[in-house]
Amino acid sequence: MTQHCGWGVEAVELIDEGDYIIEYVGEVINDALCEKRFWDMKGKGITKFYMVAVRKDFNIDARFKGNESRFINHSCDPNCTMEKWDVNGETRLGIFAAKTIEPREELTFDYEYEMYGPDEVECHCGASNCHGYLGAKRSDAC
Questions:
Q1: Is 75:99 a contact under the CB 8 Å cutoff?
Q2: Does residue 101 contact residue 78 with C-beta atoms inside 8 Å?
Q3: What is the pLDDT of residues 34-69, one digit of tens each?
Q4: Which residues of the chain have pLDDT under 50?
């Protein structure tokens, strides 16, 4: 557990730049259900969200049906990237090393966070180029 950012994921071995690390998986939901779940969780005081918008009406909610990838934290200076891949006609999300990652180093990627509602989300990544807040874009829906 990290001090400000939730669980986090650390490398267990050396990972070379460009290496595939893990697939981001979860329940595929449409925009309406994504928005409903987001506001329901926010209303219950839940502050950890594991939803990724892939495209219109294609969101991945990893809260209950995800794997360890949902615990990878954001950084303004990430060591991983998330890439969309087409595998046998299906869109998949892969996490890849953006640089060499040492054992016990935390894995991070840029969430490219879209804000919903008026609440800004403070960033705690600690990077020298930290923007202070997650994302700059605002959205009214997932």
A1: no
A2: no
A3: 999 989 998 999 877 888 999 999 999 999 999 999
A4: 1, 137-142
Whole-model pTM: value is 0.83
Task: Tell me the C-alpha distance between 114 and 136, whole Å.
Answer: 7
Q: In the numeric block, which tokens belong to residue 94?
A: 């892969």
Q: What is the DSSP string of 29-48?
A: E-HHHHHHHHHHHHHTT---
Residue 44 burial class via C-beta count within 10 angstroms: exposed 0-12, middle 13-18, buried 19 and up: exposed
Backbone angles phi, psi at 127, to 5 degrees: -70, 150
Q: Which residue has the tokens 């925009």?
A: 31
Q: Give the residue from 79, 27, 22, 89 showing the smallest Cα distance to 58.
A: 27
